[in-house]
Amino acid sequence: MRDDYDRSMRTRSAVGALPLLLASACASAPAGVHYEKIPTSTLPSANEVLVVKPPSYDASPQRRYPVLYFLHDGYGDGRTLDRRGVAAEALRRMREGSLPEFLIVAPDGPGTWFSDSHDGKRRFEEFLVGDLPRTIEARYRVLPGAGSRGITGISMGGYGAIKTALKHPAFYGSVSALSGAIIPFGWDELPRYSFVARWTLKHTFGGTKEDNSLDVNDAWLMLWGLCFDAPPFLVELRAGTEDSYGLDRVAAQYGMLLNERGIPTTVVLEPGRHDWSYWKRAIQELLDWHAARFESSAVSERREAKYDPR
To answer: Most CB atoms closer than 10 Å: which of 21, 59, 126, 163?
Structure first.
């Protein structure tokens, strides 16, 4: 817990340098990586979203592509994939042909748990299945339908990916989480978590025991109330076996429950900690997993979208 507090203090002390960091990140973005402002009424202001365009995008104006939505970790932001070199590596692999081409879209949501806030001022879940995909599909040549739409995330973002998919089961065809913080949200559970996790959970879901929306956003309670006769989507949960928060055990247990409830789930536990030395490697495996499950252009364009946010 002390380590989380120290990291939080370092993050806050760097706020004054934020404009310089953002300018640097923008200047160093590789070809194919850029940022879009997505207007929305569900958030206090337009959201800056990272978009990774496939290498063939500009040269193939008749081609349309699948899209993967990425939700960052609790200490990250919408520029994380760019800053950590993940976007550049994905583009390199697409150019050499070891990774099939698709768009990657990463919204900016520090401290939000990618959820609708209890006070209604930030409706991030609504943004994820409404204005964000609607705008991306209007501005880019994106294939329609759940089979060509996936969502993934790291830590806090992993929770956001799983929770959003459970609440909108016809929207995504493939869903994954890397070191997903798929933790119980009960009020009495909060003291077990780090200072930063407690603060952001209360800030998002309500700060008092008498008035909060923790239970309705608890991924465990949500899943207990569901049972699917036909698989709504496919899931992969990955985590490092040296995870300092025990999220490898969480992945194993939650994966079993997903399978019991009719959602085909693969759990991959491998050497790694809760940090970018592990995530930078493992996320490429998740990109491969999603790419293998996206519908082909021909199949997707024949199939009518199961869910249309418009």
So the answer is: 163
The alpha carbon of residue 195 and the mean position of all alpha carbons in its chain are separated, in whole angstroms, by: 22
pLDDT over 80 (residue 7): no
Helical spans, DSSP H, in the chain: 2-13, 18-27, 80-83, 86-96, 124-129, 131-139, 156-167, 195-205, 219-224, 247-260, 276-293, 297-302
DSSP-derived secondary structure letter, 46? P
Angle of helix 195-205 relative to helix 2-13, nearest 10 degrees? 70
Distance CA 243, CA 235 (A): 20
Mean pLDDT of 231-241: 98
Q: Which domains does the chain have, with CATH numbers?
A: 28-295 (3.40.50.1820)
**310: pLDDT confidence band, cut at 50, 70 and 90?**
very low
**pLDDT for the residue numbered 3:** 41
